[in-house]
Amino acid sequence: MSRTVGLKALGLAMLGVVALLVPVIAPDPATTNVAVFTMMYIGLATAWNIMGGYTGYISLGHAAFFGFGAYSFGLLLNHLGMAPGYGPFFLVPLAGVFAALLAVGIGWVALRTRAATFVIVTIAFMFMLQLLAENLVKVTGGGAGLSLPYPHDWGGDFFNTPYYYAMLALAVLALVVSWWIRRSKFGLGLLAIRDDEDKALAVGVPTRAFKLTAFMISAALVGMIGAVYGYYVTFIYPQFVIDPLIGISMVLMVFLGGLGTLSGPVLGALLLEPAQLQFAYHFGASRLYLVLYSAIFLVVILLMPRGIVPSVVDLWHRRRSGSAAGPTPPAHGAGNAIKAASP
Amino acid sequence: MSLLEISNLSKRFGGVVAVDSCSLSVPAGSVTGLIGPNGSGKTTVFNLVTGFLPRDGGDVRFKSRSIADLGPDRIYGLGIGRTFQLARIFPRLTALENMLVPVRRAGLRALLSHGQWGHEKARAMEMLEFMDISRVAGTLGGALSYGQRKLLELAAVMMARPELVLLDEPAGGVNPALLERIAQHIRQLNGQGVTFLLVEHNMNFVMNLCHQVVVLHQGRVIAAGSPAAVRENPAVLDAYLGA
């Protein structure tokens, strides 16, 4: 095992231990609430990156899958009459399946378009779903919302803990899936689509099937996270779960951390979500927090337009080589995978 | 025996007839040149054969099987590779990764293949060495020179061992030394059994390399035969000189 791989493994193990111990180290609900949302956005940004970062198809409508996951979970839970507690968490994968099925429908249409048109089509679908949730009153409860059972046994400091671990499990799942894809032939095909879709077709990449598969995987993960969110907040309103701000936040986090990288979305979420919650807490009444949030993003985009991770990696390489050469395009591909798989 | 048979192929763009009942055949094992003045429909024929454009009429048969309604990825899978007029490579992937994109990937196996490259990586390095660009294997495509991109594009197309390769202006924008290297590589690959159909404006390149030449003018085939016969054909001279 090389020194770098060893250091990486040690770093990951330490991060894992810290993540597992958060509710023990800081059990007060205010902190664990921030931890739940931070973990949620790590999962969301990582899941979004599988589609947006690897294929270059920027979806601003992923909140549709988040909301659809929350609604499917809530409706299932209410129809099955399941008692609140740990049991409902077993329904979360089903919400992922429903979100993936929705992604097949939306992707079938949206993935016939490219670039800006794709962005607009995804936004349109999200608003269509929001309108449906508001108007299908008999199914969703409409604007009055959908109420979910509340686990009364989980009182005090403990209440947030199960949700935190559920969000942590989904964030880890999203990271493992993203890492796996990035090192597979499928992943290399996605990166080829991002670089030049027509060329990818010309060398045998079944682009439509690959894009749809990535879209489904991404949507399934987002849908599952939406389900846990729904259970956490116990009340689902169309404008809060199919919320453009949720869709845009996950995209901003990926752009901030580094589009198409594995660690970029994690870093972006770790930086932005606690900051956003702090801003909302201190300046929420004046909505000034949204201005501050945007200002941070603008500064980073101006100084590091490719995101933090690629910029720092590039700087590190230039320092090591002592080269004065300009920045090179980031090698987001499966280069490491190829090295790792070398005989 | 014909490897590729194009019969009465037609394509219109609005009121413009780009390809007009074009018929030609590419014998197995040959290097066939497709020439013609600018706008004569050569690249459109390539796009129709490789599934990038839907045809308006006619048929394209590869090894006696119609491929006219198949998409580009399926056509590549059947054994027809192509390059583009301006060398197109994946700029944010390394040269080696560029070579690995065209490997055959089937359904779920592609998704489940976690870093399992094995012999494919060895073949990629072999092809890069064959093209004399193995030293840039770890360099990003976007950082390669135009000549290196041309060679990389040709090397990558060969990864899935296609039987027929369509080269769109392989000599375009390259210096004479590289031109000779490209010609040599094509001859060597042809010697190994690969059939080529190439579009080219450099007449010396075409006449020295091709076994047969087909001339296109205003979307129609106006001459076909050996390079020497085509060079002397009055219809060809008329088309080129505009007489």
Can you give keywords for this protein?
heterodimer; A: 343 residues; mainly alpha; two-stranded antiparallel sheet; 2 strands; globular; disordered C terminus; B: 243 residues; alpha/beta; Rossmann fold; six-stranded mixed sheet; four-stranded antiparallel sheet; 10 helices; 10 strands; 26% strand
Describe the overall structure:
The complex is a heterodimer of chains A (343) and B (243). Chain A has 343 residues and is an all-alpha fold. Chain A has helices at 3-25, 29-55, 63-80, 92-110, 115-135, 137-140, 160-182, 185-195, 197-202, 207-233, 238-241, 244-257, 264-283, 288-303, 308-321, 335-340; strands at 146-147, 235-236. Chain A has one domain (3-340). In chain A, strands 1-2 form a two-stranded antiparallel sheet. The longest helix of chain A is centred in the N-terminal third of the chain and has 27 residues, at 29-55. Chain A starts with a helix and ends with a helix. Residues 324-343 of chain A have low confidence and may be disordered. Chain B has 243 residues and is of the alpha/beta class. Chain B has a domain at 2-88 and 163-241: Rossmann fold, CATH 3.40.50. Chain B contains ten helices and ten strands. Chain B has helices spanning 42-49, 72-78, 95-100, 107-112, 119-130, 146-157, 176-191, 203-209, 227-232, 234-241, and strands at residues 2-13, 16-27, 31-35, 57-62, 65-66, 80-82, 164-168, 195-199, 212-217, 220-225. In chain B, the strands form two sheets. Chain B has a six-stranded mixed sheet, with helices on both faces. Chain B has a four-stranded antiparallel sheet with strand order 2-1-4-5, with helices on one face. Classes of the chains: A mainly alpha (343), B alpha/beta (243). At the A-B interface, helix 8, helix 9, helix 10 and helix 16 of A face helix 2, helix 3 and helix 4 of B.
